[in-house]
Amino acid sequence: MHSEKGWEMALVEARGLFKAYERGGEEVHALRDVSFTIESGAFAVLTGPSGSGKTTLLNLMGGIDVPDRGEIVVGGEDIGAYGPSERARFRVRTMGFVYQAFNLVPALTAVENVALPLLIDGVEKKAAYAAAVDMLTELGLGDRLQHTETQLSGGQRQRVSVARALVTEPSLILADEPTGNLDSHSGADVLRLLQEAAARRGATVVVATHDIAAVDVAAQRLSIKDGVVLSTQT
Questions:
Q1: Cα 158 vs. chain centroid, distance in angstroms?
Q2: 22, 121, 149, 201: which one has the fewest Cβ atoms less than 10 Å from its Cβ?
């Protein structure tokens, strides 16, 4: 958890990132010499059209993929230089993820879904469930603890996803189109809850999105097109 990591700040820095993929026998350049810094505690928004490289960049920040060239540094550590198992351990210790499709386990209740990352990290069951209950209650779902995914609205599902991302007290939260499956009201509600809950914990948030509401509340904005960061604004 955040208090156990010994970090006073979380910082993301990209240095000359290149990433290419093979698609249909052709090489597609997803990222081309991308460099930027995201300050600790920032609510940063990454914007750009579909196919611009947003998800690729999030995957590199999350250690899900590695760059072909360049460095991606999180909390002072070059995670692109880690092997798969090292990156997995780093993710568990320091990161939370929110996805457009929610990625909840359908057979589990809300509280079970939120407790899951803690249980995977070896937290005792009683403590994990207590933390999950507290987090869901903080996000306004104290009366939905025992509901499964099919018993929740889209906005409620995404709040469960946000709770799951926050429950480990991560230093960095990465959200990929978190409002993409929600109406404007539910989307704005989820963004507000994510921003406020992360700010209370001093966590850094990076949101890849088309949602103009996210841009409006961003402390930092990065704009990307055709694999190139066109501008960074604070």
A1: 12
A2: 22
pLDDT at 234: 64
End-to-end CA distance of the chain: 28
Instruction: Provide Rg for the chain, Cα atoms.
Output: 17
Q: Residue 179 and residue 191: Cα distance in Å, rounded?
A: 8
pLDDT at residue number 4? 41
The contacts of residue 14 (CB under 8 Å, 6+ apart) are 34, 35, 36, 37, 57, 60, 61, 70, 71, 72, 73
Q: How far is CA 27 from CA 20, 72, 154, 155, 226, in A?
A: 6, 22, 37, 38, 14
Q: Are 48 and 225 in contact (CB under 8 A)?
A: yes
> Considering only CA atoms, which of 199, 197, 91, 98 is closest in space to residue 157?
98
Closest CA to 210 of 178, 185, 233, 174: 178
DSSP 7-27: -S---EEEEEEEEEEEETTEE
Q: What is the pLDDT of residues 101-149, one digit of tens each?
A: 899 999 999 999 999 999 988 999 999 999 999 999 999 999 999 999 9
Does the pLDDT at position 230 exceed 90?
no
pTM above 0.70, yes or no: yes
- The CA distance from 113 to 161, in Å, is 8
